[in-house]
UniProtKB/TrEMBL annotation:
This is ZW10 interacting kinetochore protein. The keyword Coiled coil applies. Residues 247-257 have a biased composition (Polar residues). It comes from Sus scrofa (Pig). Pfam families: Zwint (PF15556). One of its GO terms (cellular component) is kinetochore. Residues 121-155, 182-209 form a coiled coil. The keyword Coiled coil applies. Keywords: Coiled coil.
Length: 338
């Protein structure tokens, strides 16, 4: 142990002496030739190196003392411990080299990975910037689209309100027109009913006239007009519509003697009127006047017929003069056509 220490100290002293021998003449020569600033920098650098060397020597000395103490504590031979220490140092150095090589490989791998990753990272940053710009553009477009949608919805709502108001107005107009049409229809229906009733009355009146004329032709025993002339002339004389011509029934042919005999025997028959006379009376006056006074509110022709029937009552029995039925009918027809 002491021998190793003395050897180390001797080696250190010898190295320092060599350094001092080398530096002394050179330093004096440089001091004479170099500027002061360069010399100051050199001296400072030299002092740093000396301090580093001294610190390293102190570390070596500490390690040697520690190893010697360990060997002494374990009771080993200093030579054997030195060999063991050397082996361990060599193994540690080998491990250190392996670790350093592994570290270097890792550093190279990391460096190569970084070299490959840097362009990718730059490209990714560019893409990120592009995506950010695109996202901002899309957000701006989205904002514009939302604004347009809001305006479109507002316009659509206004259009719907206007359309609804128009439909309401049109519906009210249609309802009003429908009510007017319904009222007009009811009015026309009432007028149609009145016209139908009037037509029925005219038809009844025409039927009474036809019956009366048929009776008159039967009583006189001859036809005043032919059937074709009657259809064309009688509606004009009676002021009746042409679409409803009179339907005259041609009576049976009779001899004038039969008619005269029938007229002469009228007063000799019973006071009750014949069925033909009752038919003429009903046809001319209508069923609604059967229970009333025949002479009340009648024209001259109807009054004459009533007088004729009244002359057939009790007064005929006293021998009063009676008006012939044919004469009364002729007078009534004349007053009717005037």
């Amino acid at each position: 142990m002491e021998a190793a220490e003395t050897k180390a100290e001797a080696a250190a002293r010898e190295a320092l002496a060599k350094v001092a021998d080398i530096l002394e003449p050179t330093g004096l020569q440089e001091e004479a030739e170099l500027p002061a600033q360069i010399l100051a920098e050199f001296v400072m650098d030299s002092r740093k190196k000396d301090k580093l060397l001294c610190s390293q020597l102190q570390v070596v000395d500490f390690l040697q003392n520690f190893l010697i103490q360990e060997d002494t504590a374990q009771g080993l031979d200093p030579l054997a411990s030195e060999d063991t220490s050397r082996k361990r140092a060599i193994e540690a150095k080998e491990q250190w080299k392996e670790l350093k090589a592994t570290y270097q490989e890792h550093v190279e791998a990391i460096t190569s990975a970084l070299t490959q990753a840097l362009p990718k990272m730059e490209e990714a940053q560019k893409k990120q910037a592009q995506l950010q710009e695109t996202l901002e553009q899309l957000q701006a477009k989205k904002q514009v689209a939302v604004e347009k949608l809001r305006i479109a919805q507002k316009q659509w709502q206004l259009q719907q309100e206007k359309h609804l108001q128009h439909l309401t107005k049109v519906s009210a107009e249609v309802k009003e027109r429908q009510m007017g049409t319904q009222q007009e229809f009811e009015r026309l229906y009432q007028e149609l009913g009145a016209l139908k009733q009037q037509a029925r009355q005219e038809q009844d009146k025409l039927q009474r006239h036809q019956t009366f004329l048929q009776l008159l032709y039967t009583l006189q025993g001859k036809l005043l007009f032919s059937e074709a002339e009657a259809e064309a002339q009688i509606p004009q004389e009676l002021n009746l519509p042409k679409d409803k011509p009179l339907q005259l029934t041609q009576p049976q042919e009779q001899n004038p003697q039969d008619i005269m005999g029938r007229d002469g025997s009228v007063s000799s028959k019973s006071t009750a009127p014949s069925p033909l006379e009752m038919q003429a009376y009903r046809g001319f006056l209508g069923h609604s006047n059967m229970g009333k006074d025949p002479r009340a509110g009648q024209n001259p022709a109807q009054a004459m017929v009533s007088l004729d029937f009244s002359h057939r009552g009790p007064s005929s029995a006293s021998g009063e003069k009676q008006v012939p039925l044919a004469t009364a009918c002729t007078a009534m027809l004349t007053s009717l056509f005037q």
